[in-house]
Amino acid sequence: MTTTSPGSGPTATAAADNFPLGTVEPDYVLTDALGTDPASVFASISDEDRGYWDRARSFVQDEVLPVIDGYWERAEYPLQLLRRLGELDLLRDGVEVDGYPAMSSMAAGLVNMEISRGDGSVATMIAVQGGLALRSVAECGSAEQKERWLPAIAAGTEYAAFALTEPTHGSDSVALESTATATDGGFLLNGEKKWIGNGSVGGVSVVWARGEDGQVHGYLVPQDSPGYSATRIEGKLALRAIWQAHIRLEDVFVPEGNVLPGARTFKDTARVLLATRLGVAWSAVGHATACYETAVQYAKQRVQFGRPLAASQIVQERLARMLSELATMQLMVVQMTRLDEQGLLTPEQASLVKYTCTRTARGIASNARDLLGGNGILLANRVARHLADIEAIHTYEGTETMQALIIGRGITGTSAFA
Prior knowledge:
Elements lengths: L9 H9 L28 H18 L3 H7 L4 H9 L17 H14 L1 H21 L2 H13 L4 E4 L15 E5 L2 E12 L6 E7 L5 E7 L5 E5 L11 E12 L10 H36 L1 E2 L2 E2 L4 H29 L5 H25 L11 H13 L4 H13 L6
Parallel strand pairs: 1-4
Antiparallel strand pairs: 2-3, 3-7, 4-5, 6-7, 8-9
């Protein structure tokens, strides 16, 4: 007796001959790095800076893009990628650490841009671990604290969080109400924090609290300290592959040696935040680049009405508009970074570049998503993930409204907020 499997035999062959192959969608290749630089703003960067950029690009192409959709969809935190960032020396965000080569502000920006072109959650690992926590210790810590924490945080062998925002104090973080009360040998911390990246994964949290002198100070709090409890925030629709925590501090004892001596007022906290706004702007450029380059590749491969989308005038106009907006963003971050390297970047300029770049990235992402049609909402086609993640970076490190008010204060000389 001869048996045939389903889909085999003469009948199946005839059916295959008659199958309308034009109904089968091709596998689109949308993740190539196109090196988009319409104004040649990156042509003159140094070999040292380009080395960081190239290393970040290889990491994105080889290690991030093949796996990140699954982590994002499952809301799982790929901590191994954070450790890899440390191994590749991509985690420092330009902070100087003994034993590491110099990393310029330009190199840090290029890394933020490139990692964001891969994924916003992975880029946020840099923003939290390097841009905020590492920088807090580097700028406000004692010599002993720097020796203990900087190498470990930079290498990704210790996880670190920056605990400033509170459930009732976001934009007005200067009014934070967590308290630090003096006790024998140190302080007792009480209060709650919210939206704290890395706040529940172990390691150390840089907690900002108000002392009995009424000023804001920084404290290094191991996350296994008694009284420290952290709950992962669930239900996020952006940056799903990194965990943020809601933290509760109940009489958490912090020894005197864990107090950051250089964090004496909120101005010291604000100094750390100022440095990170430029990094967020670079991240916005990376997200926008991913969306634009995906749209270009899709337009060349997607056939409608008997020709590629790229042959349509309206599609070419939309791509041209995206490229124009992207060029504006690139020019702006490079110029502001040059000012930063000269020590000339003002708070108003940092707000302006963050405000402009995240707003513009939202527009590019929306345009690209629409250009991809129904395929634009699929994770496999990149744009939807970036569209969602841009919503988060548009808010963190200062909302659009707060950036506008800082810019407006610079324009008018009058503060419209406290």
